[in-house]
Design goal:
The protein has one helix at 4-12; strands at residues 14-23, 29-42, 45-52, 58-63, 70-72, 78-80, 90-98, 101-110, 113-123, 139-143, 146-152, 155-159, 170-177, 183-190. With 206 residues, it is mostly beta strands. It is globular. The chain starts with a helix and ends in a 16-residue tail after the last strand.
């Protein structure tokens, strides 16, 4: 067993340079913008401060203990979202990390399917993120009731584009096969009653 707080800090602390790519509900790029993210522990508090470099706008999230709505795996991957959902709108945020690079996903699920997806490439140690060629257009395929988008050759986004009804289990996932062939992934699953399922380190999909 791993300790979520320690795994989170071990793999995610530092200064991350990012490229946020906003995608339409069909997987086509709408716009992209540069970011700067500082993650650190200070006086027992984990501080996260995101800066949108084009506007200077900042967003912060600070916590002492990992929120109960956050799932963290042994490799430092994490996901955020509600503890329970209905067929109404909800947002899932996921991240996987390998060394000095991360891939992240923010999926906004609307009343009638997928509203918007933001795909994020981040690097640490002063390196500039190598973002996909512009404009990005994901290749897509189905996996059961869900969709798999590929924004890059070795990255897959597991998404639910359905007009969900009561009783529909759902999931949101992110998988990255690193240049070394390692698989970094995390999947956030909700059961047929809308409750968050326990995180699986060996989730199989696609």
């Amino acid at each position: 067993m791993h300790e979520p707080r320690s795994a989170l800090l071990q793999h995610n602390s530092g200064h991350w340079k990012g490229c946020f790519i906003r995608l339409s509900s069909s997987g086509k790029e709408e716009d992209r913008f540069p970011t700067s993210l500082q993650v650190q522990e200070r006086d027992g508090v984990i501080e996260n401060c995101l800066t949108y470099l084009s506007s200077g706008q900042q967003r912060s999230m600070n916590f002492e203990n990992v929120p109960f709505t956050m799932q963290v795996n042994a490799s430092g991957g994490w996901s955020l979202g509600p503890s329970a959902i209905t067929p109404l709108a909800w947002v899932g945020e996921l991240s996987v990390v390998h060394g000095e690079e991360r891939r992240r996903l923010v999926a906004r699920h609307g009343f009638n399917g997928l509203d918007q997806v933001v795909y994020i490439v981040e690097t640490r140690q002063g390196r500039e993120p190598e973002a996909p060629v512009q404009p990005l257009e994901c290749t897509t395929r189905t996996s059961g009731n869900l969709m798999i988008w590929q924004p890059e050759p070795n990255v897959e986004l597991l998404l639910d584009a359905r007009d969900r009804q009561m009783g529909d289990a759902t999931a949101c996932g992110l998988r990255w096969i690193t240049p070394q062939g390692e698989i970094q992934q995390i999947v956030r699953r909700y059961d047929a009653n809308g409750y968050l399922e326990t995180l699986s380190e060996t989730d199989i999909w696609g």
